[in-house]
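quick q for whoever's on today - can somebody do inverse folding on this one?? i tried earlier but teh output was garbage lol. C-alpha cells:
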C-alpha cells in the first residue's frame, strides 16, 4: 500500500518546459491546493491517515453530517474529499484546517504516482479498445475489416473464455500512471508540473502522491 504523502489537484492541461540543455519536456499542469479536513490516528481508528479536501462547494449542497465536519475543521465545504494513508509522523505534521504546501510534500526530480478518472470513449471496437490489427482488406474480404476474429472453439471447451478481448465500454475508469518525475513546482500559484500525460480530461480531479514502486517517492529532508 502506498503510504507516501500526497495532494488532491485539478488537471489544467499540458504545456512544454525547456531544460538548460535545450531539451523539450511535455508536462501536465496540475493545480493542487488541498486542505486537511480530518485525521485518522492509530489510537482512535487503528491506522494513520490524512483526510484532504479540494475545491469549494456551496453550503446548501452539503448534507448535515459533512457540514458539521467542515465546521469543526473551520474550513469551507469542499467538493472532493480523499483519504491518504501515511506514517504517523507524517500525520502529526499537520493540523486540521491547515493547507498542504507543495514544496513540503514534493521535490523537483521526485517520482510520483497520479490517479484519476480516464476519458470516457463510449462503446468502442477491438481495434481502438485493444489495439487489434484488424482483418485483411484484400482477396475478396468484405464486412470484416475491423472485426476481432475468432473468439473460441466449437467443441472444446464450447464456450468463450472469460477475459477475452471484445468490444465494449472504453475509458471512464480509475487509472494510475506510475513513476512520473516532477519537473517544476510553483508554490505561489499552487501548481505542480509532472512530465508526461496523466489520466483524465482537463478539469478532472486527480490524486498525486509519492511513487510506490520506484525509489524517490519520498522527498529528501532539507
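ok took a stab at it. sequence:
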Amino acid at each position: 500500500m502506498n503510504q507516501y504523502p500526497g495532494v488532491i489537484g485539478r488537471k489544467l492541461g499540458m504545456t512544454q518546459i525547456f531544460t538548460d540543455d535545450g531539451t523539450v519536456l511535455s508536462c501536465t499542469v496540475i493545480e493542487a491546493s488541498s486542505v486537511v479536513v480530518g485525521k485518522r490516528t492509530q489510537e482512535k481508528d487503528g491506522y494513520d491517515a490524512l483526510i484532504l479536501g479540494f475545491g469549494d462547494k456551496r453550503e446548501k449542497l452539503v448534507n448535515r453530517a459533512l457540514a458539521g465536519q467542515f465546521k469543526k475543521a473551520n474550513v469551507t465545504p469542499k467538493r472532493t474529499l480523499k483519504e491518504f494513508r501515511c506514517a504517523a509522523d507524517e500525520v502529526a505534521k499537520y493540523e486540521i484546517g491547515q493547507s498542504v504546501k507543495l514544496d513540503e510534500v514534493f521535490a523537483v526530480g521526485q517520482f510520483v504516482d497520479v490517479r484519476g478518472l480516464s476519458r470516457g470513449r463510449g462503446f468502442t471496437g477491438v481495434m481502438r479498445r485493444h489495439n487489434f490489427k484488424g482483418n485483411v482488406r484484400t482477396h475478396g474480404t468484405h464486412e470484416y475489416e475491423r472485426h476481432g476474429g475468432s473468439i473460441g472453439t466449437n467443441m472444446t471447451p464450447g464456450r468463450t473464455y472469460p477475459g477475452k478481448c471484445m468490444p465494449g465500454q472504453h475509458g471512464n475508469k480509475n487509472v494510475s500512471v506510475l513513476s512520473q518525475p516532477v519537473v517544476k513546482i510553483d508554490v505561489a500559484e499552487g501548481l505542480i508540473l509532472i512530465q508526461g500525460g496523466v489520466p483524465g480530461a482537463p478539469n478532472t480531479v486527480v490524486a498525486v502522491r509519492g511513487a510506490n514502486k520506484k525509489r524517490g517517492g519520498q522527498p529528501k529532508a532539507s
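fwiw The radius of gyration is 23 Å. also The helical segments are 42-45, 64-73, 88-92, 102-105, 126-129. so keep that in mind when u check it
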